Amino acid sequence: MILGIDIGGTNICLGLAENGKLTRLESVPSFSREFTLEETLEYLSAQIVRFAPSGLERIGVGVPSVVDIEKGIVYDAVNIPSWQEAPVKAFLEERFRVPVAVNNDANCFTMGAYGCYPADAKPEVLVGITLGTGVGIGIVDRGRLFCGATCGAGELGSLPYKGGILEDACSKKFYTSRGWESPEAARRAREGDPAACALFEELGRNMGEMLCTVLYAYDPSHIAFGGGGAWNYPLFRASMDAYVQEHFPYHKALERLAVDVFTGNEIPVLGATLI
Predict the structure, then answer these.
(1) pTM summary value
(2) pLDDT in tens, 168-178
(3) Domain-embedded: residue 100
(4) Fewer C-beta neighbours within 10 Å, C or N terminus of the chain?
(5) How far apart are CA 54 and CA 114, in angstroms?
(6) What is the domain extent for residue 79?
(7) 266-274 vs 105-116: helix axis angle to the nearest 10?
């Protein structure tokens, strides 16, 4: 049995997997921002003891930050102030005496999405894009997670774009920069409100530019959207597709490209069990 953990700023999700399938899933509040490093690790350990039975084979942990994958050290986690240099792998291996893998949460999402495809229809090259407070990107190439030399291979959201960076135009930051909250904008767009519909048309064009960048960088056979922003995919899909069709010159690549959406919070947990 493998334990997967997805650590976020608000919640920590834990799941148990057997034979590549989750058998149990639970969410608990994340660390208090006032916790010291030691307190966060002890809290995480306590959740594992409470949730998981004895006999674990290994543990996988996804975190919203940069990771030294070999050593399992998390650096500069934005929503966990004490995790400037957190030795997660070493702590958990000493505490539970099983192998521990630690990776970026977008990479875990992408592995989880890859695991959801049928065995006879696995993507050749899958790029996962998580849409939330920011944008995360992961790459699975022929079944293997590609992280780059320092776990930063998918940081395309940091590319310069319209006086800011690309993720500013594709994430939660986009809505707030226009004076909207995402849920209200989505509700009003579904009701046909012209201003909200125009907002999602603009978002779709921004997303189209991001997809063109992904296509140039990785030439994927499949793209998987996840995160809270993926719930709004039907609202920005048309203008996104139109932008890509107009601006991406290699139409044979577009003919074979499949775009899927995975909105369940179990996906990154499953991915953590697969890293």
Answers:
(1) 0.94
(2) 999 999 999 99
(3) yes
(4) N
(5) 28
(6) 2-107+267-274
(7) 90
